[in-house]
Amino acid sequence: MGSGEARLSIDCGGAGTQAVLAWADGSAHVLSFDGNPPLHSASSMPANGQAAGQPAAFIPGPRHPVEDATTGDAGGDALEAAASPLRRVAAEAERVVGQPVRDVRVVVPAGWGPRRRTWMRQVAHRAGLPQPRLVEAPVAVAEYLLTTGVRVPVGAFLVVCDVGAGAEVTVLRRGPAGFEVLATLADAAAGGAAVDHALADALIGASAGEGHAALRASVADSVRVAKEALVSHPAVTVPLPDRPPVIASSAMLDEAVRPVAWRVAQLIQETVAAAELTVGDLAGIYCVGGSAQLPHLAAAIAEHTGAAPIVVPEPWLVAARGAADVGAVDTATVERVEVPVPPVRRAAAIAVPGFASLALIWQCLLTAEEHGVLGVYYSVSVNWGEFTMAAVMALLACLAAGTVLGSLIAARSPTPGTRTEGGRVSVGILAAVSLGAAIAGLYAVVTSQYFGVPVGPYLKWALWPIAPVSVMAVAMAVVAARQWRAPHGGWSALLAAPSGSIVAATLGMGLIQYSLTADRWPDRILWIDIAGRVGGLLLGVAVVMAVVTPLMFRLILAAPLAVIFAAIVSRRAAGMLGVIYAIAVATWWATRLWTRVLRPAPPARTAPPTGPVRADMSPGGGG
Question: What's the predicted TM-score (pTM) here?
Answer without folding.
Answer: 0.53
